UniProtKB/TrEMBL annotation, chain A:
Source species of the chain: Viridibacillus soli
Function comment: Is involved in L-lactate degradation and allows cells to grow with lactate as the sole carbon source. Has probably a role as an electron transporter during oxidation of L-lactate.
Gene name of this polypeptide: lutB
Signal peptide: none
Name of the protein: Lactate utilization protein B
InterPro entries: 4Fe4S_Fe-S-bd (IPR017896), 4Fe4S_Fe_S_CS (IPR017900), FTHF_cligase-like_sf (IPR024185), Helical_ferredxn (IPR009051), LUD_dom (IPR003741), LutB (IPR022825), LutB/LldF (IPR004452), LutB_C (IPR024569)
TrEMBL record, chain B:
Record organism: Viridibacillus soli
PANTHER family xrefs: LACTATE UTILIZATION PROTEIN C (PTHR43682)
Domain of life of the organism encoding this protein: Bacteria
Family named by the database record: Belongs to the LutC/YkgG family.
Coiled-coil blocks: none
LUD domain span: 51-233
Name of the protein in its database record: Lactate utilization protein C
Function: Is involved in L-lactate degradation and allows cells to grow with lactate as the sole carbon source.
From TrEMBL, chain C:
Domain Cysteine-rich: 3-83, 132-215
Domain of life, per lineage: Bacteria
Function in brief: Is involved in L-lactate degradation and allows cells to grow with lactate as the sole carbon source.
Name recorded for this polypeptide: Lactate utilization protein A
Family: Belongs to the LutA/YkgE family.
């Protein structure tokens, strides 16, 4: 898998997913619950806007000084005895990791949840190299067992699946014989995965934030799988997007406080793990070898542009959890491992407009995403910027729309044209008026509108006509 | 070993429209500092109350005791969890709090297997922890807001003890209690600035492991311990 | 106070009654109305679709049209928001940007103007019935006007306000979104309609022509007998 999850078209995927009643019920109830919990924990913390502003200034500062902090981080990792590989591309990152795997003659690899490894398509590469790669986050594990079903949410990847579907997958793939009770299902996964952890040669993790001052990486989880993947196997490989870094523990703490509340409405998740290099002399657990792979894969092309603020993202999914569009179409419709508002901004930047030019339009620009973002990324403004780029730079907007908008621009800028235009429209629309109040079947661009709703008829007396007529004597 | 750093960083600097900076520490002049006033006005007793209340939210049993009663409480808790085998850190605080007798005499005499982490035993420590029913550690720093124990793992304080056993008990000296993660982060950052080694693994643990990956239903106990108890104890 | 009215193109063409109500309401509150007939559309349809350059001439036209005004009042949170965006849109043209800023600073959404400028919380309206209020996204989130409509509605004699479930979710209008992504928009407006129906209120009040056209159009199609009213109409009822 890479950033693109299938060959399907956005329109078709939306159509298909709108039919998925379970998914839609699951997504809307998850949204409702997570929204409530996020607001509750934000309220409890107090000064939430102050916290957001602080989060924002930290993230902005890091992006502006990214070279320095990556230098500091890599120096410190090296001092601790770790290896650092800077990978410009997905292929480069995959090649390095494959080399490590081959050198270690590794057969079995356990992975904790990582979006960036999804993005670079690491699993496929390692499987091709003959390794068994096991996702250990419960949600990711379910998806992997189910013929590599792609994630539909960046925090709750299996949100679209119901427990009966999961029971069937478990029964088919890992000899599960019990009910569809989530606790029983989870306990079975625990048993099955525990033996995998104990026999794995390598643990691969993502990274929530690297801490430059100490050469540390951190993992924010609830299940404990990331701890297992970094406690038992002899080799640890951590893959991070190059922007996921903070200067010191003090900024780390602020972003973790924002992340856990925004993602799952928890004050802290069950485990926040900070790892600094490989095990030291006298340690009996933890990896003997540590590799940090820092991935660019298109991010530097975003730096220094009007889209830079999207790199402030801390992958909490708060925007996804409030998006009224995601609410109905679910994650898979976006055809990207990054769905929702953040995905609609980030995906065209990393994956190109050719495949993803519809995404910026999958929004009403309602601003719910921007309001929810804990690091104040102006998401709806970035969606709008994408539209501008698509129209004005890429020239990818439909020609008919372009003509219409041009005509609109000319018409709106000229009052005589606007005035006669709106007057004429009344005449043009006459034949389509079913009764006096509404139009049920409209022509041209109205067709799409009236497929769903009635359209109001243009009034014989426009407001401006009424106002003009009353100015004479009707004034109270 | 560091590979391909030069071009990577040059590329970033070019995108930012300036020369690469590897040496000049950027000034961090934050305009906002909300963490400085968050929960900092609470007394030690209020922090204990906050901590206790949060334990309910994270499905963790809370026990408050005196140093004198600690041994009995701990023994009692282990019984409640179904007894041994028991995996513990190598930690002088067990002796400070008078628990050495329990670990080395009373439990073994009662047929309860105990493994005090022993670096000489290498990977066997992990194997034991994996089979253990209870893991026991002290807390190095404790966060009231989130009911979190902070564990510094290195040497005798193996990472596995709080992770692999079926259940987990943390012993929390009252004096380790601070308002929130802010204070722990400051303490760790100070260590870094003093060029003291940061432990290779620091865990902020808030209750047993859990997951909501199946239909958003909370399942307590996934890969890590399925149950957890915090015993908060008057300092000795 | 002399108030220059920006009536919005939707109201001008489709909702004459909303325009009338706005004029009558403001006059009742002692304002003198000025309606520059040179006004056109705020430019949102093309701007939001990405045609920023094409929109600039319309924007400049509007700045010129309202330059003389003491205050500009509009019965639309969304169009008021657009006026507030003007300075940033014309950022590259300092002269225009400065003029745009002056316009933005004196532009108010209707309820915000009544509560926060006129300092009136009870406009003396009377309307019997139960109503729910749909807060528009642009007005609440981008313009930050959250309380003013509720303050005014709660003082309407005879009107019982009921909370609208999921009020924070967009109604699915989104300008061209409503036709470009019709099937998604349909689901969104249906959820909004269902939420309104669940309150058992006979009136749904909103402050934006776009939302009203969308929600009322869908209700009409589904033959749901809830009356969708612009807040100006409610506040002008007596």
């Amino acid at each position: 898998m890479s950033i693109k999850i299938s060959d399907g078209q956005f329109k078709d995927k939306v159509k298909e997913n709108l039919q998925d009643d379970f998914m839609r019920g699951a997504v809307s109830s998850a949204q409702d619950r997570l929204r409530f919990r996020r607001l509750e924990t934000a309220e409890e913390l107090g000064n939430w806007e102050e916290w957001r502003s602080h989060g924002e200034e930290i993230r902005k500062h890091v992006l502006e000084n990214l070279d320095y902090y990556l230098q500091e981080l890599s120096e410190n990792v090296q001092k601790l005895g770790g290896h650092v590989h800077f990978a410009q591309t997905a292929e480069d990152a995959n090649r390095y990791i494959e080399d490590v795997v081959k050198k270690k003659e590794a057969k079995k690899i356990v992975k904790s949840k990582s979006m960036v490894t999804e993005e670079i398509g690491l699993n496929a590469v390692l499987e091709k190299a003959g390794c068994e790669v096991i996702e250990t986050d419960l949600g990711e594990y379910i998806l992997q067992l189910d013929e590599h079903d792609p994630p539909s949410h960046i925090v709750a990847p299996a949100l679209h699946k119901n427990k009966e579907q999961i029971r069937k997958v478990f029964a088919e793939k890992i000899n599960y014989t019990k009910s569809n009770d989530p606790t029983e299902l989870a306990r079975h996964a625990r048993e099955t995965l525990r033996s995998e952890f104990l026999t794995a040669d390598i643990g691969i993790t993502g990274c929530n934030f690297a801490i430059a001052e100490s050469g540390s990486i951190s993992l924010v989880t609830n299940e404990g799988n990331a701890r297992l993947a970094t406690t038992v196997p002899k080799t640890q490989i951590t893959v991070m997007g190059m922007e996921r870094i903070v200067p010191t523990f003090e900024e780390f703490e602020v972003l973790v406080s924002l992340l856990t509340r925004s993602a799952v409405g928890q004050k802290l998740t069950s485990y926040v793990t900070v790892l600094s290099g490989p095990r030291r002399e006298g340690d009996a657990d933890g990896p003997e070898e540590f590799h940090l792979v820092i991935v660019d894969n298109g991010r530097s092309k975003i730096l220094g542009t009007e889209f830079q603020s999207v790199l402030q993202c801390i992958r909490c999914a708060a925007c996804i959890n409030v998006c009224p569009v995601y609410r109905h179409i679910g994650g898979h419709s976006y055809n990207s491992i990054y769905p929702g508002p953040i995905g609609a901004v980030l995906t065209p930047l990393l994956g190109g407009y050719d495949d993803f030019k519809e995404l910026p339009y999958a929004s009403t620009l309602c601003g719910a995403c921007t309001e929810a973002c804990p690091v104040k990324i102006p998401l709806h403004e970035l969606l709008h910027k994408h539209r501008q780029v698509i129209v004005e730079k890429e020239g990818k907007a439909p020609i008919s729309e372009g003509l219409m908008m041009k005509a609109f621009g000319i018409g709106a800028a000229s009052n005589p044209l606007y005035t006669t235009g709106t007057k004429l429209a009344t005449k043009v629309m006459k034949p389509f008026m079913k009764d006096k109040e509404f139009i049920s079947k409209g022509p041209g661009p109205l067709k799409e509108w009236t497929a769903i709703r009635e359209f109001p008829t243009l009034k014989n007396e426009r407001f401006r006509d009424w106002y003009k007529n009353r100015e004479g004597g009707d004034k109270k | 070993m560091i590979q391909q750093r030069e071009t990577f960083l040059n590329n970033i600097a070019a995108a930012l429209g300036r020369e690469v900076n590897k040496t000049k520490k950027p000034e961090r002049n934050w305009k906002h500092n909300p963490q400085a006033v968050t929960l900092t006005d609470l007394s030690q007793d209020e922090l204990v109350q906050l901590f206790k209340a949060q334990c309910v939210n994270i499905h963790t049993d809370y026990v408050e005791t005196t140093a004198a009663e600690l041994k009995a409480e701990l023994s009692n808790r282990v019984d409640m969890y179904g007894g041994g085998p028991i995996s513990v850190w190598e930690d002088e605080r067990f002796d400070t709090y008078g628990l050495g007798v329990l670990l080395r005499e009373e439990w073994p005499q009662a047929g309860v297997e105990v493994n005090e982490w022993d670096i000489q035993k290498g990977a066997d420590n992990i194997k034991f922890a994996e089979k253990a029913n209870v893991g026991i550690t002290f807390s190095d720093i404790t966060l009231a807001e989130s009911a979190t124990v902070v564990l510094f793992s290195n040497g005798g304080q193996g990472r596995s003890v709080s992770l692999l056993p079926q259940t987990y008990i943390a012993i929390i000296p009252k004096s380790t209690l601070v308002p929130r993660m802010t204070q722990a982060a400051q303490a760790i950052s100070k260590k870094v600035q003093r060029e003291e080694a940061v432990p290779p693994c620091i865990n902020f643990i808030s209750g047993p492991s859990n997951s909501a990956d199946i239909e958003m239903n909370l399942v307590v106990g996934v890969h890590g311990p399925v149950k957890a108890t915090y015993i908060i104890v008057e300092d000795r | 106070m002399k108030v220059t009215l920006f009536v919005t193109c939707l109201v001008d063409m489709f909702e004459t009654n909303v325009g009338k109500a706005t004029v009558e309401l403001l006059e009742r509150l002692g304002c003198e109305i000025d309606f520059p007939t040179a006004q056109v559309c705020c430019g949102q349809p093309s701007y939001n679709s990405g045609y920023v350059e094409h929109t600039k001439s319309a924007i400049k036209k509007m700045i010129e049209t309202f330059e003389h005004a003491e205050v500009v009042v509009t019965p639309s949170g969304s169009c008021a928001t657009m006026f507030h965006e003007y300075p940033q849109i014309l950022n590259d043209e300092p002269g225009w940007s400065a003029r745009a800023r002056l316009l933005a600073e004196k532009t108010y959404e209707l309820t915000d103007f009544i509560v926060n400028v006129l300092k009136v919380e009870n406009v003396g309206a009377k309307l019997n019935g139960e109503a729910a209020y749909h807060p528009s996204c642009h007005m609440t989130r981008l313009l930050g006007i959250k309380d003013a409509p509720f303050t005014l509605l709660s003082n309407v004699e005879g009107l019982e306000m009921r909370p609208l479930p999921y009020a924070y979710n967009c109604c699915g209008f989104g300008g061209t979104f409503s036709v470009k992504m019709g099937n998604i928009s349909e689901q969104m407006v249906d959820e909004k309609v269902d939420a309104a129906v669940s309150t058992k209120a006979s009136i749904l009040v909103a402050s934006d022509g776009g939302c009203i056209m969308n929600i009322a159009g869908r209700m009409q199609r589904r033959h749901i007998p809830v009356k969708v009213m612009h807040i100006a109409e409610v506040l002008n009822a007596h």
